[in-house]
Amino acid sequence: MAGTAKEDVKVLGLALSPFVIRVRIALRLKRVEYEFVEVRFAEPKSEILVKSNPVYKKIPVLLHRGKPICESTVIVQYIDEEWTDGSGSSSILPADPFDRAIARFWAVYIDDKLLALIWALRPEKEAAKVTELTRQFRQVLGLLEEAFPECGKGKGFFGGDAVGYLDIALGSCLGWIRALEKDKSVKILDAEELPRLAEWAERFMAEESVKGLVPEADEYPKLYAAAVASQ
Predict the structure, then answer these.
(1) Per-domain residue ranges for the chain?
(2) Mean pLDDT across the chain, nearest whole number?
(3) How far apart are CA 3 and CA 31, in angstroms?
(4) Distance in angstroms (rounded) separating the CA atoms of residues 204 and 200
C-alpha cells in the first residue's frame, strides 16, 4: 500500500500544530504520499474540518479514500497498521505488547502534562510565573529522561534503532519547546539536567523523516501570526 496515490490521502491541519506534525512524520516514515490541507480552525471553522470531524471539530484529520480518521495518536496507529506491505518502512509502534503499552502510556503523559505546559507558558509574560512553569517543564521532562534508557533499550531513540511512536509523540513538541526557550529566554531542555533527552532531540531533528516538518524556533511566530490572520 505504500504506492497509495497522493489524492487518496489528505491531512487536514495547521503546520505548527504538534498533533498535525505527528501525523505527517508517521506518513513520511511509511513513505505515503499525501496532500496537506491547511484549514480554518477558529470559528467559523473550515467546512471540510467540521464535516470530517463533527464530534470534536479539531485537527488533525486524516482522510484516506475519503474516510476520516481523527485524533493524532489514533491516526498514527492507523497509519502504522494500514501501511505494512514490506515497502521498507519500519513499524512505528513496538512489536512487543508490553513495550507497546508502555509507549502508549508515555504518549498520554506527554499530551496530559507536557502540552498543557506549552499552552500555559506560550502567553505567559509574568517573570515569576515563567520561572515556575519552566521548573515544572523540566520536572515533566525529567521522568521521560529516566524512562528513555528502558524504552529505547539503550539505543538512540525511544523506538530503539529508529524513530518510533513515542519519539513522534515527544518530538512533535520540540519546535514549540525551542520557540518558548527563545521567546521567554529560558532553558527547558537543559543538556546538563537532561543529557539523554538533549542528545536524543538532536538526533531526532536530524532524521530525514522529520526535516522540514518540525518548524525551527524562528518560524513559530510567523506561522502563528499567519494562522491567526487566516482566521
Answers:
(1) 6-82, 97-222
(2) 92
(3) 8
(4) 6
